[in-house]
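BUG: 3D viewer hangs when loading the predicted structure for this chain

Environment: internal workstation, default settings.
Expected: structure renders.
Actual: progress bar stalls at 90%.

Input used:
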Amino acid sequence: MKTDYQPEGNYYDKYHSTNPIVKWMMNKFLGDFKELLQQTEGVKTILEAGCGEGEISNYIWKYYGKLCRIEAFDISKRIIQRARNKNTEIEFSIGNIYELNTRGGMNWSYVLRY
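Structure tokens produced before the viewer hung:
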């Protein structure tokens, strides 16, 4: 079965924008996201699907540190390399959601979607 995938890449760097409206929106998003993380104490494993350059994975890692295992994947080899360069503590890999249940039989205790 042939599956068409979305093209790779983040075409707008919303995390480092100097646009005041974008900065306000991202600050609000990250604040709300932190509130979500505060409600998930005791999580042992987090999987981020479509992690891009790893901005959210890094944000989660800064919150949890070594208290949980973080795995993240994206369809782009180039983008995953950027993510790996930012944080070697996170397990970044190449993949897509269509192959999620073929990823080595890993048992994720929690799947984080946003």
